[in-house]
Design a protein that fits this description.
globular, Growth Hormone, Chain: A, mainly alpha
Length: 410
């Protein structure tokens, strides 16, 4: 990768990070819109629990479909990132606005899937673009971007706790935000650490599965994703039921505030994970984060079994929320460091596609486990993913490719 500027002196890199992080958060606002208005949508269309779950799953599966198509066409390596982000933002805004005209759950679910597919043109290209601005400090930079998205994912729960706005207003506002994200993205050009140009090679989409180092990185990422979105999707339901069982007042509102805190604290975790990944090495940080995250899930299962107080449960949940996302950006950073330089965007896109495919399974599995044996079993099963992912990252640390990661720190 050409290095035309000293690693610590790429002019304007922090300005580029600010603009691009803002662009991604705004452009992906439609992703989070359904969570903000889900209670109202359930009332409008009398949605079942299954329909409500599909509103979340549809976005995940739509993203997967969009990401696979993008990876096969090598779009993130052949088209300017800012042009892809603008296209994705416009498509997401249109699909999101379509909800205003929808006649029932089936149409809303289809529109949510279209929104997810549009997001595949936003997130992976943005990660690649930011990598061109940073060599040293890249873990922190991508951590800040993922942290901003984490905070954006938490805000709908705060809105629910405060009573929220009308669902039509939320849909319109998040659509406008998406268009604003596209405008912001147009202000950011690629940085000085350019990747080589790419040509169309569909097979590159599958190379991420064949190389051992990339395969271990992906296995680690899959372990991380196994628990992340399932926890984010179901924590509000879990905590609301926990408060109800204690006969505490306003369990729904209390759960909304708690979920905002548990998801939102991950924004700090992303930054800390970036700092530690750059200083300690990414394989070490990701393994540590997943061991701690899996440990928190197991501790929470035990706390439920012994009927711990809501304060104890919330405290463990906040720790879980911190560590469950602290490693997320570091997997993308590793890919940017060890993948074929001409196809970094394709590798990032395919890794994300595989991860979000897995999230659909874990999100769907949680309510089945809960109905069968309760929340302790669900949290125990979620803990399996990060614990296995941590083992994969320890193996990656012993491979020759580790010398390319975090400036030789692995």
């Amino acid at each position: 990768m050409p290095d035309t500027f000293p690693p610590n002196a790429a002019p304007g890199r922090w300005t580029a990070l600010t603009w691009l992080a803002g662009a991604v958060v705004f452009a992906m606002a439609p992703w989070f819109s359904a969570a903000a208005v889900l209670p109202q949508l359930r009332a409008v269309w009398t949605l079942s629990d299954g329909d409500a779950a599909w509103l979340t799953l549809a976005v995940q599966l739509g993203f997967v479909l969009g990401a696979v198509v993008s990876a096969v066409l090598n779009l993130a390596d052949r088209v300017s990132p800012r042009h892809l982000i603008v296209a994705g933002a416009i498509l997401a805004a249109g699909a999101n606005l379509g909800i205003l005209l929808a006649q029932g759950p089936a149409q809303v679910i289809a529109l949510r899937a279209m929104t997810g597919a549009a997001m595949a043109l936003v997130y992976p290209p943005a990660l690649k673009a930011m990598s061109t601005w940073f060599l040293t400090g890249r873990g922190v930079a991508l951590g800040i971007m993922v942290g901003a998205l984490t905070l954006a994912a938490a805000l709908p729960h705060l809105a629910n706790g405060l009573g929220g706005a009308s669902w039509q207003a939320v849909i319109v506002i998040t659509s406008v935000f998406a268009l604003l994200g596209g405008v912001l993205a147009m202000q950011v050009r690629n940085g000085p650490h350019q990747y080589p140009p790419a040509v169309l090679r569909p097979a590159q989409a599958w190379r991420i599965l064949t190389g051992r180092a990339m395969g271990l990185t992906t296995l680690g990422y899959l372990g991380h994703m196994w628990e992340l979105y399932a926890m984010w999707a179901w924590f509000a339901v879990f905590f609301s039921r926990s408060l109800s069982e204690r006969h505490l007042p306003d369990p729904g509102q209390g759960a909304a505030y708690a979920t905002f805190a548990v998801v939102g604290v991950g924004a700090i975790g992303c930054y800390v994970g970036g700092v530690l990944g750059d200083r300690w090495g990414r394989t070490r940080l990701t393994a540590l984060a997943m061991f701690l995250s899996g440990g928190c899930a197991l501790a929470l299962a035990l706390a439920i079994l012994v009927s711990a107080s809501p304060a104890v449960v919330l405290g463990l949940s906040l720790l879980w929320g911190f560590w469950i996302i602290a490693d997320s950006a570091q997997f993308s950073t590793i890919v940017s460091e060890i993948a074929d330089p001409a196809y970094v965007g394709t590798a990032l896109t395919m890794q994300l596609a595989l991860g979000f495919t897995l999230t659909a399974g874990s999100i769907a599995l949680v309510p089945i486990l809960v109905s069968h044996s309760g929340w302790p079993l669900a949290f125990t099963v979620l803990a399996i993913g990060p614990l296995l992912g941590a083992v994969a990252m320890r193996q990656l640390a012993r491979m020759p490719e580790a010398a390319q990661i975090a400036g030789g720190r692995g």
